Every structure is written in C-alpha cells, then in structure tokens.
Amino acid sequence: MTHSALSTDALRVIVTEIAEELAESDDRGRVASYIPQLACIDPQQFALSVVTPDGDVINAGDADTPFSIQSVSKVFTLAVALGQMGESLWSRVGREPSGDPFNSIVQLEHEQGIPRNPFINAGAIAVTDAVLSGYEPREAIGLIVEFIRYTAGDDTIMIDETVARSEEATGYRNTALANFMRDFGNLTCDPAMTLGVYYHQCAVAMTARQLALAGRFLAYDGCLAPGGSRVISGRMARQINALMLTCGHYDGSGEFAFRVGLPGKSGVGGAILAVAPGRASIGCWSPGLNAVGNSQLASRALEMLADRTGWSVFAPH
Ligand code: GLN
C-alpha cells in the first residue's frame, strides 16, 4: 500500500497514536553509561518529530527537550567532509557494513587502518580528521556546528561542553582507535586534536524537532525542501542515505533495514534520524538503548511509522 497523498492531519494522527502507544512501554532498554554524563538521563522520555515536504513539523512527546546527538553527528560531519574534498575521502574510509559494534577495533588491523564505513567510530574519527586538516580544532568544530545550524535553520543549536568533557576524560577506546589509525597513516592530525573535535561534534545538543529539520537535505535530494536551497548534490545525498541504510545502526543495521526500511542513523544518546526520501525527515529520541546500542523505543516508533505510512524505501512509490 502506498500513501503518497497522506495528509498532514492523517500523519498527525499516526504520530500521536505512536507516542501514546509507546508511552505504556516498560521495555525501554538501558541508557548508555560509559559516557558518565549520559548515565543520568531519564529513560522515560520519548519524542517523535516529522517534517513534511511542505515544511509542516508534526511533533509528539518531548519534541523540544534537547539530547546529545552523539553518533547522529557522523552524518553531518560526513556531509561537510564530502563537500570539502569530494570523492577523495573514500581513500580513507570504506562503504561496507561492519557487522561489528560501533567502537570495535578488530577489523582495523586486518584492513590496514582503513575503517569499514564512516558511521562506526573509527570511520567517523577518520572523517573528522579529514575535516580538521588545515584548520584549528575550534574552526573545524565551528564548521560542523554551522552546517548543523544551517540545515536545521536554527542558530540556537549548541554544544554541551559537559558532555564533550565527560567523554574526553573517559574515551580510552576511541584514543586507541585514533592512535591505531595514526600509526597506519590514516590520520593526518594529532590524534588528541582529532578526538577533541570528534567529542565536540558528538556533544551537539538538539531536540527531535531540530533533528528532523536538520535531516531535510537528505529527504529532498540535497535540498532543504523540494526545489528549495541546495545544501549538497543530489548524488551525495543519495550516497549518504545508502550508507545510513546499510551502516547507520552498526551491527543492528540489517535488523533496522528489515524492520523499518528507511535510511537511519542512531546515536548512544538515544536519537535516530531517519529519512523517507521525498516524503519526510524524522527525528526520534528515547534514551534507553537495546543490546547493540540503538534506541529501543525510537527503533520501535520508526517501525510503527513506516508500517502505518507505507514509507519503506522498498515499497513501490
Ligand atoms: N561519542 C560516542 C562514542 O564515541 C558515539 C557513539 C555512538 O553514538 N554510537 O563512543
């Protein structure tokens, strides 16, 4: 079944019902505790925000509560890096699902320090390093935050410094990944500087509404709206969506594609940005994570949304 003419009102009913049904859920997973600042977030929170091609924003739940976007930032940094250096980025990072946890180190040695994809930590650190080359860390952080603010159309978006510092103080595994890649020649900057930028991009605080707005360029083939201002090329937007579909949920990527059928990117703060190409950009958040580090309730909400709207990319459009 396709719903190309799904009205805003019908969509509002669907979004509201999903939030109401999930409010009763006791199985919310567990909040990430390895970043001390994230361990104290209330797992009862939930938000779903959907932006339509007309620019309507449909919200349910805590859509104006900020959260740490964590690995969802990897999508924005990838777009910045591709905009800066184009295809040459792909000599430093692959485009294959890893089938391993987000912070895994095992494949790096076998594959000579070239991470499998830009969405596992090693790959994202390599992409951040590419953005940093030629800039001061503060400037590189500025480029990434400015990109996010521009795509969301919201200058109030900020970095939560306490989260960045909390992760910097405890990020031993990311330090290992960065040093390992530096040794293979796949980082060009000082690993500590690259990690500083990486932790700051992960610590960007956004609401579900802001996240949905920031994802519009992926829903509309590189533009902020159908026929609107161009952010990146259509080809690049499609490539990023393909990577989100195949690699956006780490070793849960196959399951997410199977259940939801939309490109999506998760973060350990509990956010998922999902894209229904041509139809909607979706920000969803609930802090409790499943066993592979993806938001339990946000994954479920997106599955319900895709089912009820017919938005799966595998459905005939
Ligand atoms: N900042 C987190 C880390 O590097 C991001 C991981 C995630 O969101 N999956 O561990």
Account of the protein in words:
- The protein is an alpha+beta fold and 317 residues long.
- The protein has two domains: 3-67 and 206-309, 3-Layer(aba) Sandwich (Beta-lactamase); 71-202, 3-Layer(aba) Sandwich (Beta-lactamase), CATH 3.40.710.
- The longest helix is centred in the N-terminal third of the chain and has 16 residues, at 8-23.
- It has helices at 8-23, 73-85, 106-110, 121-132, 137-152, 161-170, 172-183, 191-202, 208-214, 216-219, 234-247, 253-259, 296-309; strands spanning 47-51, 57-61, 67-68, 158-159, 204-206, 264-266, 271-276, 280-285.
- The protein has a five-stranded antiparallel β-sheet with strand order 2-1-8-7-6, sandwiched between helices. Strands 3-5-4 form a three-stranded antiparallel β-sheet.
- The model has no long low-confidence stretch (mean pLDDT 95).
- Glutamine (GLN) is lined by residues 70-71, 102-103, 121, 167, 174, 202, 267-268, 293.
Number of DSSP E strands: 8
Can you tell me the CATH superfamily of the largest domain?
DD-peptidase/beta-lactamase superfamily
Architecture of the largest domain, according to CATH?
Answer: 3-Layer(aba) Sandwich
List the ions, cofactors and other small molecules found in this model.
glutamine
